[in-house]
Design brief:
This is Antitoxin. It comes from Arthrobacter bambusae. By secondary structure, the protein is an all-alpha fold. The protein is 57% helix and 0% strand. It is elongated, with a radius of gyration of 22 Å. The model has no long low-confidence stretch (mean pLDDT 84).
């Protein structure tokens, strides 16, 4: 059974497309597709972690973080 909610990924395997993709990676500072994938996955994890921290902060302090006083 095919899941229609998942978009398909079509690859163009022609040499010109491969060369253009490699050049695009180099322009963006990625020496290889592997470096690009690793960077993308790390960004995704970082964004998810930041969202979890923000959600925890909102649960702990629903009205915002209280201001700190040096008297305490």
């Amino acid at each position: 059974m095919k899941n229609n909610n998942i978009p398909s990924l079509e690859l163009n395997l022609e040499p010109a497309a491969e060369t253009a993709f490699i050049e695009l990676l180099a322009e963006r500072g990625y020496p290889s597709i592997n470096e690009f994938i690793v960077h993308t996955l790390k960004q995704d994890r970082t964004a998810k972690k930041a969202a979890r921290i923000a959600a925890a902060g909102e649960r702990i302090w629903p009205n915002g973080i209280p201001e700190r006083t040096d008297d305490e």
